[in-house]
UniProtKB/TrEMBL annotation:
Membrane-traversing stretches: none
GO-annotated biological processes: cardiolipin biosynthetic process
Highest taxon of the lineage: Eukaryota
Name recorded for this polypeptide: PLD phosphodiesterase domain-containing protein
Annotated PLD phosphodiesterase domain residues: 174-201, 411-438
GO-annotated molecular function: phosphatidyltransferase activity
C-alpha cells in the first residue's frame, strides 16, 4: 500500500520539545530533491529534519550474512519470549536459512515447555527474478499458507506447535523491490543487518539497539506490512526483568553503551514504469541544445538526509556500498571534492552489473572513473577501493576461499555493507545503496547515529585497507 505518512507520524508520537538536531544546520530542502507528494509533506518536514530520540546501541558487528545471523541474530531469536519479527529482501536456500529453521524449532520447543505461543512474522520481497516479474503481489502482500512453508525452507506446522507463524511476501511490479532489512525481538530489541537470507558470501554489517528507535521501527513495520493495523498486545512477560534476563547473552561489543542520538529514516517505495535514466524528462534533457537539469531523487527522509549529509560534510566522507551509480550521489561527491573533502569509497568492481545497466544505464567502475578524472582539478582527495579486485589491498586475492574449505561461509568475496560516515562522527547504516535503484524506486530503511565512539568501533573492526586519512 502507499506509504501513509500522516499515520506513521502520529504513531511515532514525536515530542519535538525534547528533540535536538543531529546536524548544526537546519535541513533545507535539497535542490536535488524532486517534488514532495502531498501525502508525505508532514512526514517529510518531521523525519527528514534529523530529529532524533536517544537510543542505546548494544552491538555493531561485521562479517558475512551467515556469520551475522549465527553470532547475533539467531541468538536473539532463540531468546525471544513473546514475538519475533524478521524482515528481509531476498529469501533463498542457504546455510543462513537452515540456521534460521533450526532456531525456529528451538524457539518452539522452548515455548512448548511453558505452554505458551510465540508469535513469529517473516516478511520478504523476492525469491527469484522470474517470480517477481510474473507474480507481483497485491498491496497487502502474498500470505503463505502452512502447506507452502516447506517450499520456503521453513518447518512444517506440526514441528513448531509453540509458534504462531505468519509468512508474507511483497513485490510491486515492475521495480517495486522491498529492500529494507530488520529484526525486532519482543518489541524491545531492534537489529538492522545489511544482509539477506541467502547464500552470498558478502561482507555485511549489523547493529542492534534498544530505546525509542524500536518503537519507531514498529510503527514503520505496522504501517507497511500490516496496512496500518496495530499489532496485537503482547502477553505479560514472565517477570519484570524477564526480557533483559533472557537477552543477557546477546553480543555486546560496543566500547560505550550510552544512549546516542538516533534517527530512523524510511524511504518508501516510489512507483515508476521506467528506470530513472529512461524517464521522458531525463531523455528530453539529454538532447542537444536542451538545458540539462540537476539529478533528482524522491524526497524521502532517508534520501534527503543522506543528500544533506554529503552536502554538508566538511572534512571526510567514507562510503561502503555495493555499487555507486546514483547521479545525485555522484554530483554530491563531486561538490564535496570541490570543497576539499577527503573521500574514501569501498565498493565492487563487478557486482550485479546487469541490474546496474537496467536501473542506471551505467556501471560503478564507469561512474567512478568519471569522478576520478575530475579530482586533479579539485582540492579534495578521492580513494577508491574495489573489494572484489585482486589488486586492491586486502582484496579478493587475499580472501579467496577454496571450494569446501571450512571457513567458506564466513569469508567474504564481495562487499554488501551499506555504511556512510561523515566527518568521523555521523554514521548511517541500513539497507540503502548508493545506486540508482535505492535512489529511485526501492523501499529502503536507514538508521542514522551520531557517535564518534561508534564510528571508531566500526573502523577498528574493518580488517582491510585504511578507512579515511590518518588511519
Amino acid at each position: 500500500m502507499p506509504f501513509n505518512a500522516r499515520q506513521y507520524l502520529q504513531s511515532l508520537e514525536m515530542d519535538t520539545s525534547s528533540t535536538r538536531r543531529l546536524v548544526d544546520e537546519p535541513m533545507d530542502r535539497d535542490l536535488e530533491a524532486g517534488p514532495t507528494p502531498a501525502e508525505s509533506c508532514a512526514f517529510f518536514s518531521e523525519a527528514s529534519s534529523n530529529h532524533y530520540k536517544p537510543s542505546q546501541p548494544l552491538s555493531l558487528i561485521t562479517g558475512t550474512g551467515f556469520s551475522l545471523y549465527k553470532s547475533l541474530i539467531i541468538p536473539a531469536i532463540t531468546q525471544a519470549q513473546q514475538e519475533v519479527i524478521l524482515v528481509t529482501c531476498f529469501w533463498a536456500d542457504s546455510a543462513t536459512r537452515s540456521a534460521l529453521r533450526s532456531a525456529l524449532l528451538a524457539l518452539s520447543a522452548k515455548a512448548s515447555e511453558t505452554s505458551t505461543k510465540i508469535r513469529v512474522q517473516i516478511c520478504f520481497s523476492s525469491k527469484s527474478l522470474a517470480r517477481n516479474m510474473l507474480l507481483p503481489t497485491p498491496q497487502r502482500g502474498q500470505i503463505y499458507s502452512p502447506s507452502k512453508w516447506a517450499k520456503l525452507g521453513l518447518p512444517d506446522v506440526r514441528e513448531i506447535p509453540g509458534l504462531q507463524l505468519n509468512v508474507t511476501r511483497k513485490f510491486f511490479w515492475p521495480f517495486g523491490i522491498i529492500h529494507s532489512k530488520y529484526v525486532i525481538i519482543d518489541r524491545e530489541l531492534a537489529i538492522f543487518p545489511s544482509c539477506n537470507i541467502s547464500w552470498e558470501r558478502w561482507f555485511e554489517t549489523a547493529i542492534s539497539m534498544r530505546g525509542p528507535v524500536v518503537d519507531h521501527l514498529l510503527s514503520f513495520h505496522t504501517n507497511f506490512w500490516l496496512q496500518g493495523e496495530p499489532l496485537p498486545p503482547l502477553p505479560q512477560p514472565q517477570g519484570p526483568d524477564a526480557f533483559h534476563a533472557e537477552h543477557e547473552t546477546v553480543p555486546k561489543v560496543m566500547s560505550s553503551s550510552n544512549r546516542i542520538p538516533t534517527a530512523l529514516l524510511p524511504s518508501p517505495h516510489t512507483w515508476s514504469l521506467l528506470p530513472p535514466h529512461l524517464s521522458p524528462k531525463r531523455l528530453f534533457c539529454s538532447l542537444p541544445c536542451v538545458p540539462s537539469v540537476p539529478p533528482s531523487h524522491p524526497p524521502t527522509p532517508l534520501l534527503t538526509t543522506t543528500s544533506h549529509l554529503l552536502r554538508t560534510a566538511s572534512r571526510s566522507i567514507i562510503l561502503l556500498t555495493p555499487n555507486v551509480t546514483a547521479p545525485t550521489v555522484l554530483s554530491l561527491l563531486h561538490a564535496a571534492l570541490a570543497r576539499g573533502v577527503a573521500i574514501t569509497i569501498c565498493t565492487n568492481e563487478n557486482l550485479m552489473t546487469a541490474e546496474q545497466l537496467v536501473t542506471a544505464g551505467s556501471t560503478t567502475p564507469r561512474c567512478l572513473s568519471s569522478l576520478s578524472s575530475s579530482v586533479q582539478k579539485l582540492p579534495g582527495s578521492l580513494n577508491v577501493y574495489y573489494f572484489d579486485s585482486p589488486s586492491s589491498p586486502g582484496g579478493l586475492g587475499a580472501r579467496e576461499v577454496k571450494e569446501g574449505k571450512k571457513d567458506q561461509e564466513t569469508t567474504a568475496v564481495k562487499l554488501h555493507a551499506k555504511v556512510t560516515i561523515v566527518d568521523d562522527e555521523r554514521m548511517l547504516l541500513g539497507s540503502g545503496n548508493m545506486d540508482a535503484a535505492s535512489w529511485g524506486t526501492s523501499q529502503e530503511l536507514g538508521v542514522l547515529v551520531q557517535s564518534k565512539d561508534l564510528v571508531r568501533d566500526f573502523k577498528n573492526q574493518w580488517p582491510f585497507w585504511p578507512l579515511g586519512q590518518g588511519d
